[in-house]
Amino acid sequence: MTFTPITDEPARGDFPPVGLLGLAGPERAQVFADRLLPRPPISHLFGLMPESRTETEAVFTMPASPWLQTSFGVYLASTAVLVADAPF
């Protein structure tokens, strides 16, 4: 298998259409949870995926990649910010 630097790979993901901004937050989250639109670039980089939503919350998952660990094999609390600040 050959190594290809990420900077040499084609960009993955896309941005949602501007009209999506006209939807209320819960409806917008549902569109992403139903996977009706292309995944945003951050989901390709970190594996951050919307799973479901209710009127009061949105649920995301993200794999615990070794890439996010410190050299001591520890996940810092700041890693949770990636999920907490999900761009959906």
Order of helices and strands: HHEEH
Helix fraction bin: 10-25%
Total beta-strand segments: 2
Uncertain segments: none
Largest sheet: 2 strands, antiparallel
Cα separation of the termini = 34 Å
Summed up, the helix count is: 3
Explain the overall architecture:
By secondary structure, the protein is of the alpha+beta class. The protein is built from three helices and two strands; from the N terminus they run H-H-E-E-H. A two-stranded antiparallel sheet has the order 1-2. The chain is flat.
Topology (SSEs and partners):
Blueprint: H1 25-33, H2 41-46, E1 49-53, E2 58-61, H3 80-84
Antiparallel strand pairs: 1-2
List keywords for this structure.
alpha+beta; 2 strands; 88 residues; two-stranded antiparallel sheet; flat
